[in-house]
Amino acid sequence: MSHNSFGHLFRITTWGESHGVAIGCTIDGTPPNIRFTLADIQAELDRRRPGQSRYTTQRQEADQVRVLSGVMPGEAEGEYISTGTPIALQIENTDQRSKDYSDIARRYRPGHADVTYDVKYGIRDYRGGGRSSARETAMRVAAGAIARKVVPGLVVRGALVAIGDIWIDRARWDWAETANNPFFCPDAKTATRWAEYLDGVRKRGSSIGAVIEIVAEGVPAGLGAPIYGKLDSDIASGLMSINAVKGIEIGKGFAAAALSGEDNADEMRPGENGLPDYLSNHAGGVLGGISTGQPVVARFAVKPTSSILTPRQSVDADGNAVDVMTKGRHDPCVGIRAVPVGEAMVACVIADHYLRDRGQIGVPRS
Amino acid sequence: MSHNSFGHLFRITTWGESHGVAIGCTIDGTPPNIRFTLADIQAELDRRRPGQSRYTTQRQEADQVRVLSGVMPGEAEGEYISTGTPIALQIENTDQRSKDYSDIARRYRPGHADVTYDVKYGIRDYRGGGRSSARETAMRVAAGAIARKVVPGLVVRGALVAIGDIWIDRARWDWAETANNPFFCPDAKTATRWAEYLDGVRKRGSSIGAVIEIVAEGVPAGLGAPIYGKLDSDIASGLMSINAVKGIEIGKGFAAAALSGEDNADEMRPGENGLPDYLSNHAGGVLGGISTGQPVVARFAVKPTSSILTPRQSVDADGNAVDVMTKGRHDPCVGIRAVPVGEAMVACVIADHYLRDRGQIGVPRS
Amino acid sequence: MSHNSFGHLFRITTWGESHGVAIGCTIDGTPPNIRFTLADIQAELDRRRPGQSRYTTQRQEADQVRVLSGVMPGEAEGEYISTGTPIALQIENTDQRSKDYSDIARRYRPGHADVTYDVKYGIRDYRGGGRSSARETAMRVAAGAIARKVVPGLVVRGALVAIGDIWIDRARWDWAETANNPFFCPDAKTATRWAEYLDGVRKRGSSIGAVIEIVAEGVPAGLGAPIYGKLDSDIASGLMSINAVKGIEIGKGFAAAALSGEDNADEMRPGENGLPDYLSNHAGGVLGGISTGQPVVARFAVKPTSSILTPRQSVDADGNAVDVMTKGRHDPCVGIRAVPVGEAMVACVIADHYLRDRGQIGVPRS
Amino acid sequence: MSHNSFGHLFRITTWGESHGVAIGCTIDGTPPNIRFTLADIQAELDRRRPGQSRYTTQRQEADQVRVLSGVMPGEAEGEYISTGTPIALQIENTDQRSKDYSDIARRYRPGHADVTYDVKYGIRDYRGGGRSSARETAMRVAAGAIARKVVPGLVVRGALVAIGDIWIDRARWDWAETANNPFFCPDAKTATRWAEYLDGVRKRGSSIGAVIEIVAEGVPAGLGAPIYGKLDSDIASGLMSINAVKGIEIGKGFAAAALSGEDNADEMRPGENGLPDYLSNHAGGVLGGISTGQPVVARFAVKPTSSILTPRQSVDADGNAVDVMTKGRHDPCVGIRAVPVGEAMVACVIADHYLRDRGQIGVPRS
């Protein structure tokens, strides 16, 4: 079975294959009277767009989005006001090189979903990885641009914190840096190391994994739907749905397993507006599945892409042993472009929970 | 908002507070003609039951489950045959010591959901942690006993792999060992180290975290619902919903971020029955969100409980600064009892996806 | 497949067979701080309870409900305050006469779900009709008592408007009358006719159908989730889910098909509070799937029960021709007891939509 | 709140306003390897298309559908094979005459959703009725073309059975006739009466309602998800979601209320393949919410459109009293074009339940 919708009250449904005519999404549940511009969406897409540096895939996609429904025009061109009806976004695919994939029409690339899609469906659009390609994530990023508008004051930002085993130095964390290098790296020094490192990876036709951290600020306290719609459960589900993700953490994550109760729990002292001040944020902004009002901090691990130049043992659709290597245009580190995608997923989850608690209609907006 | 149901076609809905009259769950979607016994369920519950060793909470709960609907009687007492209608399971709470919690009726224990429940709901059953207590997980374990019956040949087992920073030696992994020590530890030597270590933690009135690994075997290939109902997304969501969980991994998890594409991707060679043989399982049994047929391997990290004897800075419901320490009966390592809970969540997810692909009625059963 | 939950944010999940140990429901999504009493629920159940007159089934069920979770105690015994966590309600079955049904263990009563349950599930609890019995509706009525509390000012009332082809005289409609006769009839004169008529039906061992009208007042304008969660769609789904229902109408219903546009549309004139006054209510309180603020008026038709004394041609589970007649205790007109059930379903739908628009937490309450 | 998805495993999500750029839908859950052609979809759309006769709206829409995803190309142009991934369908709007609606930008047409959309959302696309227009139903019809392919042997047909109070003569029912007149009328004689009658209605600038009957044959027995996902509940919900619908019936519908148990229940005698033969079909193919294997028969009542030339009392968005009459292009009987829409909804429901019981992957296909 397939399930291509995410969210309950703020729900996105995506469609489209990597080499199909287009990709798109329908956003259901945007409250009415939310103002946004085409530029808002395009800006997010541009952060994800391939072909922007030599460290990401060389496929050139303009990724120009169109808004097809759910809005009334604003005052200027490209300005929109949501009506509360479903918003359809769409991007034409313009730079498919299907022949790049013809070699693997019937071969299974190890580490890719080729084999599992064939096992499950008995048929697959192999071109460009079809539906299993990360191309689909462009629509999540587009939807995330609107999700960000649903919660007043919400700011969701992402950063790469590790490539391979080269981690940033948190003491040098500067959000402004993430816009100054091709890696969304908040630590300028580490960005330089990564550049050099990835040049080597790319030239070898190899690939490497990465870890991304997403921080959401301005999250109202009290969001989350215990027991099975916990805020962190939904964030985990959303991040795990991104291509090539193999691990999720909230707050201290796996490191919390090695902490004592005294060291891990975030102490409190009197605060304002009925909320305490927290002396730390090991919890990552979520306690008992509900937001505390502190920054929500999540991390996810992206495995290295399996689209590499090294021949690997595999099988073909007829069950014969074959070697597979992937030519064509690929990311040496797919984790880089996952940063805006992770931001979008977290934004969508928070928007969804905001509406579930506050209602879609009774939501104050600018 | 609250959301207390998990799953789509195999769906469990739980209810009940830690110190309420009872706890229960409704299992909707069990295919008809599945045979199970009260002993099947009780056996799973007994693995989770508190008061079994000095390393777990001393609350004595008989945790005797009753089946109230959804079955016809089998031949012997305690034997049941599912009818396809909802199965209600229920456990009476017998050993609540509500006065143990009277100190914290209006105090927020750091690291617990006390404060977030109050922020969200404005009212909470503080007794024993109310709905946020891990008592609720008993019902998941009960439901998991039935989930295991849905997929012929499915075996789901869990083991503790780390307490604090003391990890097992994987080379000595022996599933049979997990039944020989109070820790579900598959490595006898490490179990001994943990016993000594935890004695110290317990005596200090402190707590420590843990990492649990769940392995599901006999998972048919092809299960999972891309893009947003991926098998690993649902597993991540289910495991993250367990109390005190802060991290989830599938396969290599975060370690995959430090691997190259050559090292991470699982090579294949010709196999049987239309499926390849895999030369490794770094993927953890899931590729593109769909099961490969290999063991599904997931890990989750449990933070240390915040119910400790050390006084900690906090606030009360009136916003005053207070110190909070928790007396009463607590787990020095709540991760231990989470093992059967993790197994149950994974079993429920796999059962759900099995039915989504194969249908609830056309499912072959023993 | 089975699906035993109804609603999105205010969601009820029921379980239990007619002759099982008990029946119950879980109500998920009740906002916190809603006050209710056991008597509130019991009062609704008592309106539905069998054995109250010679016109309804003679099964004697005390139908005493228990609240098992989701509440803190109020000041007096039987008073509760919702915590926002799931509320479990339960009723023990005390008066099953399973041997009354032993004749039909393997026979299919025409017009009943016996045959379809066997076709679908391959196994059924035949005792008392098992899960397909109207016994399940007691839990809906219980849940409806709480649903009514969710929307401030909501009043949902039902009345029988026809038994067989004997319709009430709408000109004599008096809600107070519905409590004065065994039929929920708002027209005293017609109630007398029905009494005489049904005596004949009952003595003949026959049965007859009925039409019930539900009117909800105090419904805020603007509720409903176009296009597929329209208020009237959800009401239709909820009413159609009641046993033996074969038709649903909103407002003028089928009569609207014979009206001209001039005669059917409800004209408006200026009103108060941003809402118009309507000069009529042919729409039944719903326009475009959204409530207008006028009374929501729905009707449903209940077919005659097929549990009658006349032998009818049928087959048994082995495919042999048999005659079936049902002895035991039955309703000559099952529609009578459906009145509180219809009220409950409409109340649940309105509560659900109220929360979907206003949010479960930001809901003003008494 | 808005909710624009319908179905569980076979789920359609629609978007688009009457005068927006385009309208579209995403079909999630189509099993893989289903073959269909553009002509299959176009044929269904052409049955619904406006401007086909003087009895339906004169808006000229080519309604040419495009398939944008979810398929691999078949052998010939316009032939497709589903891959199991979401299928996006889209139709450009080409003949919007927005100025036709400028008069009512701030006026509320009685009987239309103008006022309720403004109350709910505070903003609406008034052009052509925006999202509340029946234009959206084109996408349901397109999706229905694919739904029909999911269940082997399924045939879903609709017919108009009444316009105003002029009913067909069932004794003359001939499905072939429905293609010979502009009314989907199965009774040639009545079609002639309707032509004459509607000419008068149209010339008067008035409108009239209608009743449509949908018959689904080849429905496997055993489909439906009791208690709250009953086949007839989902059909009722789907039909009620169609614009202007005010009543739903299954089988005998409201007439069943006037029948005795002896007359209403469908007797059975031994049949084949484990299913009985039924001596009648008053149940309309559904018993206890589950299909019997007999034709599923549903009817729905469509109210007269309120877009008429007669001035009616109303208010405007500022609360002033105004008269409203609608010029522009309208249907004197919107029920006519609802026939293919009703067929599509029933097809979608049956496809959904087929997959819920048989699984999306284990479905035999041609």
UniProtKB/TrEMBL annotation, chains A, B, C, D:
Its cofactor is FMNH2. InterPro entries: Chorismate_synth (IPR000453), Chorismate_synth_AroC_sf (IPR035904), Chorismate_synthase_CS (IPR020541). It catalyses: 5-O-(1-carboxyvinyl)-3-phosphoshikimate = chorismate + phosphate. Gene3D superfamilies: Chorismate synthase AroC. PROSITE patterns: CHORISMATE_SYNTHASE_1, CHORISMATE_SYNTHASE_2, CHORISMATE_SYNTHASE_3. NADP(+) binds at R48, R54. Reduced FMN (FMNH(2)). Keywords: Amino-acid biosynthesis, Aromatic amino acid biosynthesis, FAD, Flavoprotein, FMN, Lyase, NADP. Pathway: Metabolic intermediate biosynthesis; chorismate biosynthesis; chorismate from D-erythrose 4-phosphate and phosphoenolpyruvate: step 7/7. Its EC number is 4.2.3.5. FMN binds at R131, S132, S133, N243, A244, G288, K303, P304, T305, S306, S307, R329. One of its GO terms (molecular function) is chorismate synthase activity. It comes from the Bacteria. This reaction introduces a second double bond into the aromatic ring system. Belongs to the chorismate synthase family. PANTHER family: CHORISMATE SYNTHASE (PTHR21085:SF0). HAMAP family: Chorismate_synth. Homotetramer. This is Chorismate synthase.
